[in-house]
Amino acid sequence: MTYNPDKNGYYGQFGGAFIPELLFPNVKELEDNYIQIIESESFQEEYKALLKDYVGRPSPLYLAKRLSEKYGGNIYLKREDLNHTGAHKVNNTVGQILIAKRLGKTKIIAETGAGQHGVATATVCALMNVECIVFMGEKDIERQAPNVARMKMLGAKIIPATSGSKTLKDATNEAIRYWIQNPETFYLIGSVVGPHPHPDMVARLQAIISEEMKWQLKEKTGKENPDTIIACVGGGSNAAGAFYHYLEDKEVELIAVEAAGLGVNSGESAATSQLGEVGIIHGSKTILMQDEYGQIVEPYSISAGLDYPGVGPLHAFLFDSSRAKFMNATDKEALTAAYELTRLEGIIPALETAHALAVLPKLEIGENQTIVINLSGRGDKDLETYIKYLE
Ligand SMILES: *Cc1c(COP(=O)(O)O)cnc(C)c1O
Predict the structure, then answer these.
(1) Binding site membership of 241 for ligand 1 (Cβ less than 6 Å)
(2) Cβ(199) to ligand 1 under 6 A?
(3) Is residue 219 among the annotated active site residues?
(4) Could you report the per-residue pLDDT of 12-41, keeping only the tens digit for each?
(5) Backbone phi and psi for residue 338, each to the nearest 5 degrees, phi listed first
(6) For ligand 1, atom 5, which residue shows the shortest CA distance?
(7) pLDDT > 70: what percent of the chain?
(8) Side-chain half-sphere CA neighbours of 24 within 13 A
(9) For 323-378, what is each residue's pLDDT tens digit?
(10) Last residue of a domain, one of 202, 233, 254
(11) Per-residue pLDDT, 174
(12) Is 327 found in the same domain as 291?
């Protein structure tokens, strides 16, 4: 497949593994084994059984009738919000913990910004009785108290990152530092980012989303392919999963939606493809927001899950090659879209997901057009923000 990374982990010019020498054996071990493990019968059996009975898959593909009436076409929602822990992230953590176990790892480390990936990781560590350490910026620990409490209840140890801006990128730096000093640990990355093979591994674990979409659409419409798929992009894992089995079907339009914050050119934005340039972040060559010295520019979005200064290398390639169309939505547009979905369909989406919904008014939708929006997560965690907006 054109969209698989080459043997050095590159999608076109993007990807690779830019890692300190001390991490090389660890990353190489994973690289040598991950495909074989994922494709093995025993892994597939255990992974699929957990996705079914623990996560609650297949997630429904729901025809949103009132939303379709408003915007035209047939708009389907892929309901990742109904997964255990409330988002797509658990597809990845369930898969990676099974890989970690097969590699004989007994300790998991992870980094988290808003705490969603931290919770999904702590959840599967509890399930598998594996020690779990989560790195989190000090500022995020204050801002995301409910998720911090969840992780603690699940038995994870939380280590605050106290350097720099005390947010996600600092937590990532701390996690990598710890990994170098403790190479026997397994670094459970939360999106299609990081050094090869992490982006490809996470994409393969999230690919269950489009695998299901194919047979669900066939069942409902008689054909496997929609005309358009829309997903929001932070690091890019839910979009990678929703696009994965359609990447080679050029007639399927792929739309990736980034967070524009207060506006793409406002200085308070996370629209990486529009503002970024080629550089290296978290061990991968990709597009990222940087200043004239190549230092990371702090991104901004109302949604913590899209507040990331880069995109995964697959998405950099999809952008560069124009395979996917990159759009964006502001905080305000996302809030409006979240209220609209809630009032039309009785579904409160995550703020991240609301960005994907927010491009509907900007599209020209044909009467017979079939659109799938990946509903990446539920909005319980965002209620405080939503209520503030209403007032
Ligand atoms: C974390 C998160 C995202 C963004 O992450 P991706 O890797 O880009 O998918 C999107 N939606 C929800 C609900 C999330 O929790």
Answers:
(1) no
(2) no
(3) no
(4) 999 999 999 999 999 999 999 999 999 999
(5) -65, -45
(6) 234
(7) 100
(8) 3
(9) 999 999 999 999 999 999 999 999 999 999 999 999 999 999 999 999 999 999 99
(10) 202
(11) 94
(12) yes
- Measured in angstroms, how far is the CA atom of residue 86 from the centroid of ligand 1? 11
Supply φ then ψ for residue 10, to 5 degrees.
Answer: -105, 135
Dihedral of alpha carbons 162, 168, 170, 174, sign: positive
Cβ(312) – ligand 1 distance below 6 Å: no
Comparing 255 with 308, which gets the higher pLDDT?
255
Give me ligand 1 centre to Cα 250, in Å.
Answer: 25
The whole-number pLDDT of residue 284 equals 96
Whether residue 111 lies in the annotated active site:
yes
Domain count within the chain: 2
Could you list the residue range(s) of the whole structural domain that residue 249 is in?
Answer: 56-87+207-389
CA 47 – CA 26 distance, rounded (Å): 23
Residue 13 covered by a domain: no
Do residue 366 and residue 246 come from a single domain? yes
d(CA 132, CA 372): 35
Q: Which atom of ligand 1 is nearest to the CA of 241?
A: 9
Same domain? For 281 and 196 the reply is no
**Both 113 and 254 in a single domain?**
no
- Domain assignment of residue 7, yes or no: no
Q: Which residue has the tokens 């399927």?
A: 252
Note the pLDDT tens digit of each residue in 199-257: 999 999 999 999 999 999 999 999 999 999 999 999 999 999 999 999 999 999 999 99
Instruction: Using the mean position of ligand 1's atoms as its centre, give its distance from the Cα of residue 278 in Å.
Output: 22
Whether residue 349 is found in the same domain as residue 306: yes
* Residue 3, in any domain of the structure: no
CA of 377 to the centre of ligand 1 (A): 8
Active-site pick, 59, 191, 269, 376: 376
Pairing between β-strand 61-63 and β-strand 74-79 as defined by DSSP bridges = antiparallel
Largest CA distance in the chain: 58
Contacts of 292 (CB under 8 A, 6+ apart): none
Choice among 31, 68, 80, 111 that is catalytic = 111
